[in-house]
Every structure is written in C-alpha cells, then in structure tokens.
Amino acid sequence: MNAPPSSPAPATDAVVLRRRLADALAATGDLRGPAWRAAVESVPREVFAPAWFERSDTERGTMWSPVVGDAATLARVYEDTTLVTQLDGGVAPGDVEGPVFGAPSSSSTLPGLVVGMLEDLGVEDGDRVLEIGSGTGYSTALLARRLGDDLVTSIEVDPETARRAAAALKAAGFEPHLVVGDGLDGVPDRAPFDRLIATCSVREIPRPWLEQSRPGTVILANLTGWLYAFGQARVTVTGPGRAAGEFLPGTVSFMPARRHTPPAPDTGAALAAAGPDRPTELGPEILRDWVGRFVVQGALPNSQQVTAQVGDGPCLDHVLDVDGSHATLLPQQDGSWRVREGGPRRLWSLAERAVTAWRAQGSPPIDAFRLSIDPDRHTIHLPDRSLSWDLPRLEQRRR
C-alpha cells in the first residue's frame, strides 16, 4: 500500500507561492520585466510580515484581530493584499490578544502596488536609490535584491518600525543602508541619488529631495492635501530646485508624512453658522469622485472635509479652512443642494470655479495633469495651462 504523499516543507511552499505571486503580478501588468520578477521570486515576504492585523467590521465599528504567521497562513502572506502591521503609531500584533479598535499606522503594502511603483521608478543597474519609508522592509529588500545593498538607502521615521525592518532585512540576508529619521529631510550624507521613491504621501516635493538629486534623477511620490485627494507624481529633476513630470494613472494613496498631516479642524464656526445660503449645482458627490476631489483640493489646499451634525439635525458635509472660512452643504427634499458660506473667503465658490473649468475640458483623468517645480513654486496643471494651481510652500513656511 502506497503511503499518502507528504506535504511539501514550508520553505518549498513559499518558493511556489512567490512564483505564483510573480505570475499574478505579471498578469495584472504590475510586474513588467525579468529583473523585478527575480526579486519577487526570491524575497521572502513572510520574514517582513511575521504577524499582522485582520480587519473586521462590527456593530461597534472597525476592529483589528492579531494574526501570527505560520505554515497555515503562509498563503495569506503571498496574496496581493496589504497587511496592517501596526496600529496607532505603536501597537503591534504581539501586543494584544484579541480584537481591538485602532487606526492603521504601518503596513506591508500590497505587492502589486510596491512592484508597480518600482517598475514606474525606472531603476537601472548602478542607480543609487533613496526610499522614504522603510515600513516592514519588504520593498527595501526588493530594491537590495535588484541593485545590491550598497546602492540602497532607506529612511524610516518610526524607531520601532525601523528596528523591526532592520531585523527582518538582516534575517533575509540583506544589509542596505538604513536610517532612522524624518524622510522629508532625506539623507544628505548618502546623496546624490539617481532615484527617489516615497511610500508616504506629501503635500509637496520637499526641498531636500531636490537638493539631494542630480539632473536626470527621477522622483516618484504620492501627492496629497488636507482633503485627502491623492495623485501619484513622477518627476525628473532638471536643475537646482527644478523638476517636471506627470501624474500616473490609477488610484494610489498612502498615509501622509507626519509633518504634512492637517491640524485638528475647528468645527465651531461652521456648526454655529446660521447665515444666508444659496443654491449650488455642485453637491458633496464631487468629493467622492477621485479626480473631482483632486480638483477641489487644488482650489482649497488648506481645507478639510468634516461630516458632523448639530443636536438632532442631519449629518452635514462641511468644508473648513485654516483661515476660518467654511462652507456647509445643505440637502434639499427635491434632491438639489444649497450651500452656506462664511469667513474671509467663499470656499465653495472657489470649488465651483475649479470644477467648472475641469469639466469644460471634458473632465480629464488624473494622468492628464502635470507637475512643474521651480525654486519658488509647485504648479499642478493641464498641459495647456487651462487649469492650474500652485501648492502651498510648506518648507519655506517651516523655515
């Protein structure tokens, strides 16, 4: 009688799963060349995500349950999905025993997005790369496998996240140059870089990134604002403080860099406002459209959206600006909208003007927009400049 076939050892399973992951990413178009395929097939993701949180939506709200990786959960690690590895800036899966509330603060990003970004970066042999945000270290390992340890520098702002990434990289056999610090400042003693990639979102391309580049350096970064609209920008440095490029297609978003997060909104004025209102053809649905929200954010770069109610009244959408301006959208029984505006500027009027200009051009997609950078300004614009806006100069303000 023949003995039943034995199950393959976990290491063999991982090899098969990595190959299957590479095949899946090639099928979606995220993996496009043999160099990154070799990296995906050889870097053990389970080393970088030994434990994670699984999400569950309950009557009490979203909760997170810790999962410790083992042979039974290995296939989960090699799914094209994001694994949340930290909550609230410091809570790891090993710190809790059951479902908990919390906000994700670190993750192992879905491999398709990671690999697609690395392909978009256009890395060539011999390039010196700076990665902003080490995270779990998985993307750092892919870079080190592709280029070699000496050419890869990765900086992480959270000390505990950095410690875990360093340990995982060492366990996987990689020794890139790792730095604990604020990635917005770059790593000047390792400059200049040929490629720079950010795994956090920023409100502008920080001046140090440009200063630590050379003509021809490619920077890939996720641009956002306080309305949390996002666009994946790829620019090429053309000279001191200068760069130009485009936004890539897709709906990519990352957690914002800590220095670029908005202040707590002051809802008092908007909730207490009882002034006149007017009809508007632009309802809050524009803020649920990926590109529409991006356009409104361009017009209102220092504004936030808050949904709140007063007493037993309905939940209303409010747009609040740091200068004290505010707009509240008021639903009508016939399905139309009115808006109440207050403060020094008429926020919704500015949003209406920007959206009207965008729609007049046929509502172009996110990849129709360009990003032009010079020492004085960052400008997002359509190629013919029929719609454009300048971003707030944050680094100048900070200095």
UniProtKB/TrEMBL annotation:
It is found in: Cytoplasm. One of its GO terms (biological process) is methylation. Keywords: Cytoplasm, Methyltransferase, S-adenosyl-L-methionine, Transferase. Its main location: cytoplasm. GO terms for cellular component: cytoplasm. GO terms for molecular function: protein-L-isoaspartate (D-aspartate) O-methyltransferase activity. It holds the Pfam family PCMT. InterPro entries: Methyltr_grasp (IPR026448), PCMT (IPR000682), SAM-dependent_MTases_sf (IPR029063). Its EC number is 2.1.1.77. Belongs to the methyltransferase superfamily. L-isoaspartyl/D-aspartyl protein methyltransferase family. This is Protein-L-isoaspartate O-methyltransferase. It comes from Embleya hyalina. The lineage of its organism: Bacteria, Bacillati, Actinomycetota, Actinomycetes, Kitasatosporales.
